[in-house]
Write a structure and sequence with these properties.
The protein has helices spanning 3-10, 12-23, and strands spanning 48-53, 68-71, 74-78, 84-88, 99-102, 105-108, 114-115, 132-138, 141-145. The longest helix has 12 residues, at 12-23. The chain is 14% helix and 29% strand. A six-stranded antiparallel sheet has the order 1-9-8-4-3-2, with no helix packed on it. Strands 5-6-7 form a three-stranded antiparallel sheet, with no helix packed on it. It binds FE2/S2 (inorganic) cluster. The site of FE2/S2 (inorganic) cluster has 10 residues, from loops.
């Protein structure tokens, strides 16, 4: 079905309503963004959206406190206490994939939103908080779970 056929079928008003509804990004009523919203699917057995072998050279950024990497649109970091923390790369201020980890906080490179490691916003741009994920370490395998 092409655009013209679609508009005939549902009417221009309905198409406008659908378009306006989705322009702001697809989140729930609280503004949370879930991994499946950004194209991630959990492992059907473990429920993990992401697993990382922390002994692997590719994850060497996680060997030091304060280091981080971004994989599958998830920012995975090792905080200054040595705990693994994870959050969506997508900012809650505007749907931009600009979150990194710096100074023991999640930080957006677009307009400088700041969030603590629990996802709580630390300035006005971060007032909608950030979706963070649970992590668990089993041997060298770090799992990120929604
Ligand atoms: S998009 Fe992240 S602070 Fe604006």
């Amino acid at each position: 079905m092409n655009r013209k056929e679609f508009l005939k079928l549902v009417g221009a008003g309905a198409a406008f309503a659908v378009t306006v509804t989705c322009l702001g990004g697809c989140t729930n009523d609280h503004g949370d963004i879930f991994p499946d919203d950004i194209g991630l699917n959990p492992d059907p057995i473990t429920g993990a959206f992401l697993t990382i072998d922390v002994s692997n050279e590719a994850s060497s950024a996680l060997k030091n406190n304060g280091g981080y990497l971004i994989k599958n649109k998830i920012v995975v970091a090792r905080d200054l206490s040595g705990n693994y923390v994870a959050a969506t790369v997508r900012c809650s201020h505007e749907p931009r994939d600009k979150i990194i980890f710096r100074n023991n906080e999640f930080y957006c490179r677009e307009h400088s939103a700041r969030f603590n490691t629990s996802g709580r916003g630390l300035n006005s741009k971060g007032s909608s908080n950030l979706k963070v994920y649970k992590t668990s370490l089993n041997g060298n395998i770090l799992s990120v779970i929604a």
